[in-house]
Specification:
The chain is α/β, with parallel strands linked by helices. The protein has three domains: 319 residues, Rossmann fold, CATH 3.40.50.300; 162 residues, Domain 2, N(10)-formyltetrahydrofolate synthetase (2-Layer Sandwich), CATH 3.30.1510; 83 residues, Formyltetrahydrofolate synthetase, domain 3, CATH 3.10.410.10. It comes from Zooxanthella nutricula.
């Protein structure tokens, strides 16, 4: 049934899947209203593995899901096989005058090894509204890196009966967006080192003859991709006649004078590999400069692809022109005189835009219960802004229309992806959220009590996590309260989703509900979408709809354009983290003083780079500490993405692999025809 033609897939939506007595009246509503391709499932107990569930459900061709739900045209959808595809940006152009739907961001408490189920909740909510409550709905979720998929974390399609499917295609190559980022990022890295090599093995005259060669008639012409550097040098008026440049101007144009010690542009790979955290490049004899009489080698490192600034740019770009402009602004290194050097200076912006343009349209998929989903971009939330793309959200809000709902996901807790959603993503998109869902679990709250035993991967949980203990839950709720208050300070309604696990008790749930409501939540609802699909999140869905109906008064935490850099940082520390003061290293002080003199840099929003596990800059401090000092070690500008990255500590840019990585379980089952993937989680 999984790979059957559309007619067979539609026929497979039988009373057996809807319930023994056929569709209930409430389920008839979604068939006529919200999502015509919805298919509520009949869950099994105990819940099978994620991949077993994903492969057991008959799917509707994704093109039909989007056409039947939103009335999209044939030329607005581009299938990559039957169950994934791309959505043309022309759809937004056609629908841009249509009113937006309700905008809901899903975030969480500070994550723990026990898991909160944020992606699962995002999908479960969409299934509840689209397959059970008769609403037009769209899920906007991030695309995961393949590194953690084969490492320790596993995939990010959701789980149980609340998944984006097919989960194999979701967690693996998708439509190649991450590969496009890898190619573009590494092309830029190659351009930087190659330019450094040629400048140190040639002269300005030699560079000029090769960069702007004479044609057969003896005439020279600049490539259009060189115009940006000419404008930067104040030579824009000569861009159509290279022969007007003086010898001094030729040298300024040709010689970037790269300071190799300032090159920050790492190479990337979509794989967990800690052996690439520190490498030496340029060791081949071909990288020896006779002119300088030295080997042009240097220390460098790799990063995982999703940490690339190009990923953040893809997530924040609003159209192809904006994408190209942002790519051109990326700073990769500095000249020996301290001048920032960008992709525009290297003349590579056009090539990067060409590599990335096909990744800009969002990817179309569906949830397990047949509601539509857009999967697009996956920037990290601890080193970037951690949200799915602006383009996916904007198109989604037009597709669902005035009374519909778009659920978008923010990485980690409301202090990380949530705060950056409000103050970076919304700043650039101009969109205002109606509601924020904060996901928590009883087990995670117990860990945040700071009194429960430490959780060790691979070891059985202690009884504190598997037996009722309302005292630990109440103490751990301090972390939840901090996140509720963070959302409310942005003027947004907060709905708490208590993701139910089998060891929870009703008494523990009641503690969370009481504390949440006492501290400003619009509602706090227990949800069982992992085990029951959308049916298990109906009450949560109703609470979200109620919060959207009540409305929000969204406001950013700070004035990005006019507040000083230190003022913006302090507001985040005090209002979001609960700290009191900020301490700056000498290095950070010097950089801030430099940035304050540049109004374009000074006016950028702040992207805090810190541990996701704590409200502080110390991963071991759980719960909700108060009155602490945040230590800023470094600050740098991601000029293309459009934010200032404030580093509070050392962050690994490429994960490693454990003793037993997830790849041990992944294989092909040749007893199925065609062979089927097994072991993905």
């Amino acid at each position: 049934q999984r790979f059957a033609p559309a007619a067979a897939a539609a026929a497979a939506i039988s009373p057996a899947l809807l319930g023994a007595d056929g569709p209930r009246p409430s389920q008839c509503d979604w068939w006529r209203g919200g999502c015509p391709t919805a298919r509520p499932v009949k869950p099994k107990s105990p819940t099978p593995s994620d991949i077993e569930i994903s492969q057991s459900v008959p799917l509707t061709p994704v093109k039909q899901v989007f056409q039947r739900t939103f009335g999209l045209k044939d030329d607005e959808l581009f299938p990559f096989g039957p169950y994934k595809g791309k959505l043309s940006l022309q759809a937004y152009d056609r629908l841009q005058d249509k009113p937006d739907g309700h905008y809901v961001v899903v975030c969480g408490i500070n994550p723990t090894p026990l898991g909160e189920g944020k992606s699962t909740t995002t999908v479960g909510l969409s299934q509840a509204l689209g397959a059970h409550l008769g609403q037009k709905v769209l899920t906007c979720i991030r695309q995961p890196s393949m590194g953690p998929t084969f490492g320790i974390k596993g995939g990010a399609a959701g789980g149980g009966y609340s998944q984006c499917v097919p989960m194999e295609e979701f967690n693996l190559h998708m439509t190649g967006d991450i590969h496009a980022i890898t190619a573009a990022h590494n092309l830029f890295a190659a351009a930087i080192d190659t330019r450094y090599y040629h400048e140190n093995t040639s002269t300005a005259s030699g560079m000029w003859k090769r960069l702007v060669p004479q044609d057969k008639q003896g005439k020279r012409a600049f490539e259009p991709t060189m115009f940006a550097r000419l404008e930067k040098l104040g030579l824009g008026h000569k861009k159509h006649n290279p022969d007007l440049l003086t010898e001094e101007e030729i040298e300024r144009f040709c010689m970037l004078n790269i300071d190799p010690d300032t090159i920050t542009w790492k190479r990337v790979t979509d794989c967990n590999d800690k052996y690439l955290r520190q490498v030496e490049i340029g060791k081949s004899p071909s990288e020896f400069s006779k002119r300088q009489n030295q080997q042009l080698s240097r220390q460098s490192s790799f990063a995982i692809t999703v940490s690339s600034e190009i990923m953040a740019i893809l997530a924040l770009a609003t159209d192809v022109k904006d994408l190209r402009t942002r790519l051109g602004k990326m700073i990769c290194c500095y000249s020996k005189s301290g001048e920032p050097l960008t992709a525009d200076d290297f003349g590579i912006t056009g090539a990067l835009a060409v590599l990335m343009m096909d990744a800009l349209p969002p990817n179309t998929m569906q949830t397990l219960e047949g509601t539509p989903a857009l999967v697009h971009t996956g920037p990290f939330a601890n080193i970037a802004h951690g949200n799915s793309s602006i383009i996916a959200d904007k198109i989604g809000l037009k597709l669902v229309g005035k009374d519909g709902y778009v659920f978008t996901e923010a990485g980690f807790g409301a202090d990380m992806g949530g705060e950056k959603f409000f103050n970076i993503k919304s700043y650039y998109s101009g969109l205002k959220p109606d509601c924020a869902v904060i996901v928590c679990s009883i087990r995670a709250l117990k860990l945040h009590s700071c009194e429960a035993p430490k959780v060790v991967a691979g070891q059985a949980l202690s009884k504190e996590y598997t037996e009722e203990n309302t005292a630990l839950v109440e103490k751990g709720c301090a972390n939840l309260v901090a996140h509720i208050q963070n959302v409310r300070k942005h003027g947004v309604q907060a709905v708490v989703a208590i993701n139910r696990f089998g060891t929870d008790t009703d008494a523990e749930h009641e503690v969370v509900k009481r504390v949440a409501m006492e501290n400003g939540a619009h509602a706090a609802v227990v949800a069982e979408h992992f085990a029951k699909g959308g049916a298990g999140a109906v009450d949560l869905g109703k609470a979200v709809m109620g919060a959207c109906k009540q409305g929000s008064n969204f406001k950013p935490l700070y004035d990005a354009r006019n507040d000083s850099i230190k003022t913006k940082i302090l507001k985040i520390v005090q209002e979001v983290y609960g700290g009191s003061t900020v301490s700056y290293s000498d290095k950070a002080e010097k950089i801030i003083a430099k940035y304050e003199s540049d109004p374009d840099i000074r006016g950028l929003p702040i992207c805090m780079s810190k541990t996701q596990y704590s409200l502080t800059d110390d991963a071991k401090k759980l719960g909700a500490p108060k009155g602490f000092t945040i230590n800023v070690k470094d600050i740098y500008v991601s000029a293309g993405a459009g934010f200032l990255v404030v580093s509070l500590g050392d962050i690994n840019f490429i994960p490693g692999l454990p003793i037993k990585p997830a790849y041990y379980k992944i294989d092909l089952d040749f007893s199925a025809h065609p062979p089927r993937i097994t072991g993905l989680s």
